[in-house]
Amino acid sequence: MPPADDSSTRDAQPAQSLVQRMLRETSRFAMLQVLSSLLAWVAHIALARLLDRRDFGVFAICGFYIGLGALLGNGGLAATLVRRRGEVSREEYQSALTAILVVTLVLAAALFFGAEWIGRRNQFSESEVLVVQAMAPLYFLGALRLVPYVRLERELRFSVIARIELVAALFRHGVALGLAFAFGSVWALVCSHLVGAVLQVVLAYAASPGWVGFGWSWRVFRPLFAYGSKVQLLTVLAYFKDNISRAVLGVAAGPTAVGVFDFALAYIQIPVVAVNSLARVQLPVYARFEATDPMLHATLRASMRTALLLGVPLLLMLALAGPDVIPMIYGEKWLPAVPVAWALLLNMICGLVDSPLFTFLQAQGRAGLALIAFGVWTGSTWVLALCVVFLAPERLPLLGGAYSAATLGVTIWLLRWVSRYLGRPATAGLEAPVLAGLGASIVVGLVRWTGAAWCTPLVASGILLVAYVACLYAIEGRVLFAEIRSIVTNARRAPAKPAVQGVEE
User: Fold this and answer.
1) What is the CA angle 348-353-355, rounded to 5?
2) Which of 404, 417, 352, 409 minimizes the C-alpha distance to 376?
């Protein structure tokens, strides 16, 4: 038998090495991100006890302007450089960095000199106006990270990025807790974020050294911005949709109301954040199938169904247990957030399926439709929220209801469009977890209606979980257990070894 040609083997080895490196870096990045999230949660609990609701509200309002400026200043250039095929030239780095720094200079000056207007608009005290001005340098610090972060991402050194952010987070949380314990003011949050941002820049250049300098070429910059601006537009729309309270609630109700609403949003959205993190995995999977392939419908259905099966009971349990859990962990001053969390509940349940649906649109080459849908979602949320904010600013649950109403409308429209696109009902299999959640809520309501003293919020959340499982079994019977067995079997099955072309066994 003639010897096998090993040229294809040599070609396959770098590809396999690249895949292995990506898997290794991604797994390390994920583990470090989980650790960083746990640290942030612990620090948030401590800070929630040490600082006032107004402190969080003032910082959130200032953070809105910082975040918006960072998005506008970046212009999607970082995403463009990361996605660019081939090597990024020094001239491209220089043009991107120079453009971002010039824009951030203008934005920082506008924020610094417009601080009094922002303060008056959001009912700040004189000392709180200084907070706005003190946060202006964050524009520059974010821009200076552009080059080393792009280089690290292009080199697939995600674990290095995660370590940088973990170290910066440790210092940021340490400074915040120390200052909050000693002085107990919003300056604990401001100083800690400045320290963390400076440390991120220093560590980023230590990991990927080399200053590219300044330079400008319209010929080089124009194609970078043309692509990046389209990518960034969806991010800007999402930012406006998710930060309505920070943008306008302070004007009508003051920083304390912003702090309470943001706390409720962060508390109730925990399961949805976990679902959104799966978008990176779902995108390439959806992109592999044509619309006529039954596997595309099955894959999308499985993603949405799994999110609802797990997310619906978790969301209901969080809302039910709030009156016990929130004062126990965060302090009694945050109890006004409980009715707001309930009002946001429908918004979060819809969010469990919205993330897979928007990922589906992008993977199937419908990015334009996704942008239109997101624009309608953002616009309708703003219209309803503005009506609430200026007609009944003190009734924060109504603002949560505005979020839920807008999200429900967009979710129904997306499900109908996807059903037409696939030629099959996209809602197949989604009814059971929703009906089970509704049935379990009715059971808990009946138990609490009897006035049983033992049915505390924590006990009620436990009853809901048991009732949810019972209702789900009553609706689906053996179908659910068959799906669970299939998932367990596939998880235990050893992955097949990749075949190397040109090598005989």
Assistant:
1) 90
2) 409
Q: What is the pLDDT of residues 47-104, one digit of tens each?
A: 999 999 999 999 999 999 998 888 887 777 887 787 777 788 888 888 889 999 999 9
How many angstroms separate the CA atoms of 36 and 30, rounded? 10
Rounded-to-10 torsion of CA 396, 398, 403, 405 = 170
Distance between CA atoms of residues 399 and 245, nearest Å: 9
Residue with tokens 């924020």: 111
Asked whether 299 and 313 are in contact (CB, 8 A), the reply is: no
In angstroms, the CA 298 to CA 292 distance is: 11
Mean pLDDT score, 389-408? 91
- Structure tokens that stand for 88 in this block: 């990024």
Residue 238 vs residue 342, higher pLDDT:
342
With both helix axes pointing from N to C terminus, report the angle between 255-268 and 53-74 in degrees, rounded to the nearest 10.
80
Number of other CB atoms surrounding residue 403 within 10 Å: 27
- What's the rounded Cα separation, in Å, for the pair 161 and 149? 7
Lowest average pLDDT, out of 155-164, 416-425, 455-464, goes to 155-164
- Sequence ranges of the domains in the chain: 243-429
Q: Where are the beta strands (DSSP E) in 83-216?
A: none
What is the Cα–Cα distance from 404 to 410, expressed in whole angstroms?
Answer: 10
Tokens matching residue 266: 């962060």
Measured between its terminal Cα atoms, the distance across the chain in Å is 13
8 Å CB contact between 95 and 267: no
Does the predicted TM-score (pTM) go above 0.90? Answer: no
The conformation of residue 86, written as its DSSP 8-state character, comes to S
DSSP state of 427: T
User: Average pLDDT, stretch 300-315?
Assistant: 88
Spatial CA neighbour of 176 closest among 359, 51, 264, 30: 51
C-beta separation of 444 from 462 below 8 A: no
What does the block give as tokens for 85?
Answer: 């095929």
The predicted pLDDT at position 406 comes to: 94
User: CA 180 from chain center: how many Å?
Assistant: 27
Mean pLDDT for the chain overall: 84
Whether 494 shows a pLDDT value over 80: the answer reads: no
- Angle made by CA atoms 72, 77, 78, in degrees to the nearest 5: 105
Using alpha carbons, list the distances in angstroms from residue 434 to 249, 427, 437: 32, 11, 5
333: which DSSP letter?
Answer: G
